[in-house]
Amino acid sequence: MDHSTHQLSFWRKYVFSTDHKTIGAQYTITGLTMAMVGGFLAYVFRYNLAFPGDSIPLFGHLLPQQYNSFVTCHGMIMVFWVAMPILLAGFGNFLIPIMIGTDDMAFPILNMMSFWIFFLSAIVLLASFFVPGGAFGGGWTMYPPLSTNGYVDRDPNFLKALFSGASMMILAVALEFVAMLMGGINFVVTTINKRAKGMTPFRIPLVIWFINIATVIFMFSVGPLVAGAFMLLFDIVLGTGFYDPARGGDPILFQHLFWFFGHPEVYVLLLPSLGVLGEIIPVFSRKPLFAYKKIVYLAILSAVLSVVVWAHHQFVAGIDPRMATFFSIGTIIISIPFAGIFLSFIATLWGGSIKPTLPMMWALGFIGLFLIGGMTGLFLGSNTFDIYAHDTYFVVAHFHYTLFPDIFFGFFAAFYFWFPKFTGKQLKEGIGKLHFWLTFIFFNSTFFLLFFNGLTGQHRRIFNYSMFSNVNREPYITFEKIATISAICLILSQLLFVYNFISSLRSGKKAVKNPWNSATLEWTADSVPPHGNFHTYPEVYRGPYEYSLPNSSSDFIPQDVPNEIA
Amino acid sequence: MELGQNNDNVVIPDTEHDYHGHPNYEKVYFSLLGLFLLSLVVGFTVSPILAVVMIFATAVWKTALVVRNFMHVKYEPILIWVGVAAVIFCLISFFFGIYPDITAVHRAVAQ
Amino acid sequence: MSQTHNEQHAFSLPIKSVPQGRLAMWILITGELMIFGGLICCYIFNRLRYPEWGEQASHTSTFFGALNTAVLLTSSYTVVKAHQAVAKADTRKITMWLSFSILGGLLFLINKSIEYSREIGEGLTFTSPHLQKGTDVGSLFWSFYYIMTGLHGVHVIVGMIVMFVAMMQARKGKNLHRVELAGMYWHMVDLIWIFLFPLLYIAK
Fold first, then answer.
1. Which residue of C has its CA nearest to A184?
2. Partners of residue A261 in chain B, C-beta under 8 Å
3. How far, CA to CA in Å, does B104 sit from each of A157, A321, B101, B109, C54?
4. What pLDDT is recorded for position C132?
């Protein structure tokens, strides 16, 4: 396919582009914009938690219903409109074709359509804030009966029910699923069919493996929830009784449908970032990735296990206690493959020649913080402990200690690593380092104290804690204030990132082709790879992590260098 | 990118050329019809429980026939088999994970 | 830009690759099977919990259900004959077999609408408000009936459109490989019905 001859109009080149790099950028920018929305919502309700009743700067007084909506939408937005587009669609689109040495995805037009459907889903979600009744406020999990009767006083007017916050949220999520499924088909087919000559399966970079495994997990687990979401939508809009006990339905059915997807979803979100770590750590330790093949098998194992542990989110919902035991055991077992992956990252670092560059700092920060999140997850995986801790701030702190490093540290690590390649410019190191340290410090000061609030029994999703004597006392009130002020500082620190991004794009120093001396294929392309990525397509002769080989004269050997030359 | 473009140095498998043999489709079709009629008859003749078992057994058998022969999974590489097996695994996990909470709960308790 | 990219494809890999279109269609099919599989499991849970649904299920027309099953099985056969004709690039035969399959789909939809109109006329609707009295839970059967057959019906329509597009292109001799892909989708539609039929019509 000759890419150089057609000159495209502005709309075809930048808006309705079929080039995977442009689509990756579109997904990432949309995700970052939605992160600002989600961050603002968090700011508002966190401010209210620390200073209840005060007028919130840049917002005004917060009503209880708004608090519920904001908490709900913060969660929804961060999972589906920040994490999924940045980590799965963004990384996948940017990295897959170029790291496997091909020109573009297998189905470029389908790829473009998937982005615009995703964009539409974001619009639908944001629009739900402005319908009568406002955005849905029953928790991102949208459990019935709150989502079907309790919140929207089921409006007999079909159109009003259809355009209620709850229905629009369901529609937005459904559109987002469609977009991700379309993108997912692209990722898997491209990786299986369009690799460069000589790139056997175990010469594929880890991040590509992990993005594909994550995509497969997503595609298998989302089906029942699509069915369940239809049923929920019909309950809301048409008044069917799928989840209504009075008519024979069962709310617990929805919980199962939701979490059958919801649990594998967290691994869908985790694996791409772990893959990014798997690229960054070898480069900046100048050592091959330890046990690369085994890590791939461990990830596949964890994918298989992830579909048999979902009900640990429902320990206190009234499920059969014998099943609770089964799910509890499964949850604890599933930590083993992930522990193996992390241990292998640490083993890669061990004895390596560590270069403390910015991507490496984000990667190391990720590992440290995620370990805290992961270990607290083990506590929660035990059904007995969970009886106490469920729906408290202990859970909130747990999932922020896993998700925030996963989404933000993972994204920033990838961003600082690949920015020179995709833009041809260098980022400013000093501001980057300041960004890292401020983010690291303020993230911890925001969330660490919340573990203690949770342990003392502070429940989630409550507007006014003045009635709860165990919470409404020192030191927990001070902890709330510290958390809020840190959260504000955390959000403000991201302005450094925005500044660095924009100013480096406009006037940054030109970057060399391979600033990090990395061995994978994308670094052989021009910085700012052209449409089609490569002038001549590479042929692969070796694995992706050939650093510091004992009998080699050079520090590293790129994948496309044949044996005779090395 | 059009499949079917064939350069001399590389053979790109595409679906225009026969990559597999064709089973006897007529035989498969009549087996399907036969099983279908069997499932109808069984509904009226044998005891209810045996009928249910047999009806679902025929459904599974028909599915296997369609999947293997019409969808040519018999000839596909192992990747496709893994995909089909994964669907079955996920659905089994789904079914047995939820079964106790819905089916085994007496209706009065649920209401 | 010197070489076309096709020459660099590594098809001699240990993972035996499947051509793009077919692989993509298989992924789509597995996704759809998970959706219907989840829905069918939900139905089964409730069906096992409420034996009185057998009484409700007796209101479905076994005749039309059986007729639809036969129609879909036959249309699956005709579409695979179309696929067989692709190997000989016999565009006339391809068009003929595909039109039979599309006709089969149309017949299915006609039967279904006859059934629906009869059932709705008897007051057995999606919400069946008149059945929701006290502890009578029969209405939920009908909610499941309509959502399952309705979603399936949507896929029948989509399948017909896909086959139609493939047929129009095959008539001109273009994109013959798409006949198989359309066929695969249609087989999936047939498979789902193979399960829906006993669940909704026979298990009384």
1. C27
2. none
3. 36, 13, 6, 10, 18
4. 59
